[in-house]
Every structure is written in C-alpha cells, then in structure tokens.
Give the backbone structure.
Amino acid sequence: MDKFRMMFQFLQSNQESFMNGICGIMALASAQMYTSFEFNCPCMPEYNYTYGIGLLTIPPIWFFMLGFVMNNNVSVLAEEWKRPTGKRKKDPTILRYMFCSITQRSLIAPAVWVSVTLMDGKSFLCAFSINLDLEKITGNYSLFRGMSEAERVRLLARIPCKDLFDQQEIRVAASRYIKCFSQACGWMFLLMMTLTAFLIRAIRPCFTQAAFLKTKYWSHYIDIERKMFDDTCKEHAKSFAKVCIQQYFEGISGEIRSFHGHRSSKYDSDDEDEDKRKSDEEKLLGIRAQDDMNKVLWNWHTCKPALALRK
C-alpha cells in the first residue's frame, strides 16, 4: 500500500511531465496503428497531392485541437480571461503563461504524428510521385517515349500503387528515392523540434526568475482555487440536499402523527447521528436559502475577493 501511495504522490508531483508523456505515447500508438494498415493512395493525378499532404496536416491539427479539449486548464484560462475585473485585477502574464503551457502540451502529439508519418514515407510518396523524374533515376529513357504529358503524369501517379504499375523495378527505385527524401525531412523536423525545445529551456533562465516564479505561482493558485471552489460547492450542495430531505421527512412524519393523534415521543439520538447532523449544518456555512446561494455564486463570478487575507 505504501508503494502505491508513493507512486501516486510521484505522479501527482510530476503531473505535467506525466501528461506530456501520455500524449506522446497516444500519438505514437495511433501513428503505428495507422501505418500497420494498408495505405491506399488514390493513384490519380488530381487527388494524390491532396490526399498525401492531408495525411500530414489534418491529423496533427486534430491532435492539436484534441489536446486543448482534453486539457482542463483551457476552461480556467477562458474564465480568467472573460471574468469581470471586480476586486481582483487580471494579470496578462499569467494568461500568457497558462496559454503557453497548454499549447506546449498540445503540440506533442502533432509532432509525434508528423515525425512518424515522414519516417514511414508512404504519404510523401503519394503526394510527390507525379513530380518525379524517372529518366534521371532509372536511366530508362524509352519508358515515356510516345506519351503525352497527361499520360506521363497519369503513369507517375500510379507509382504508389504496386498493383497498377507494371514495371516493379522502376517502381521500387522511385519509391526508395522518395522515401529516403521523406525520412531526411523527418530527421530534419525532429532536429528542428529538439533544437527549438533546447533553446526554450536554455533561454528561460536568462530572464528574471522572480517574475517567472510569480507567474507560475499565481497560475497554480488560479487552478487550485477553481478546484477547491468546485469541491466546496459540491459539499455545500450535498449538505443542503441532506438537510432539506431530513427536514422534509421530519415535517411529514410530524403531520402524520398529529393526524392520527399519536403522541410524539422523543428519543435520545446516538452520538454519531448527532455529530453527522452538526457536520452537515457546519458545511452549510450559514447559507440556508436558495436566493442566498445564488447571490454567492453571482458575486464569485462578477466580483472575486481580493487576494489579501484578513487576520
């Protein structure tokens, strides 16, 4: 049990790194599942480029948007940006820090997808096969003899489809050439992403650490404050409902006893029941009416309290 507790505390303290790793693993698994299926290129000049480039751009955009949707801090950022100022000022640096943190995590999955797709090379082959000069690669100058430009482009578009291209040796040579170029682009993309991440990590300590720590602290405070406010509202709603139901049943039972003319007898309740009743009453925090609770929620949204604690 202690090992599970230590593991949970470790994951909780390194939540950001853990979630980044989970996003990367999910993107890598989805890309591997995609490459395990048979790649079906249209092998038509009108659609090859659109289909191939679409596989390089549309899934990363979807992963990027999904990263924003699955991040709980997006709602915190939106609420902090749109809320009325009230007694608490809004700091633009905190909003920028939260947005950069969300964007950084959301970019992991698209980067993994683009890298794996470029390393695989199938979509790159489908997109750029019509731009290939087979005469320079294979040295077969008689392949396009007597063909018009439209027939030549149509033949090049069939290179990704092995069942539509007759000369397999030429197809293998052209496929290897384009896939090597795609893998080179993939390594360049990985190098660029790694260099960018390194520069961000290296340049950050050059700025004022006090301002960075202040921004990081208050961004964590906003997130924790929202979670604790939601938990307090849930506890209050649970206690409010429990007390209302208890009073309802006590009132109904009193009416029934008075209707039948039974004498009401009082019994000493147990200590545990009395403690539970007191705890439920304390969780109401003095708010015992619907209008009062609506006023509290409205004031929390329109005029948050200032960050200055009273003694």
Summary: Residues 20-208 form one domain. The CA atoms of residues 158 and 251 lie 82 Å apart.
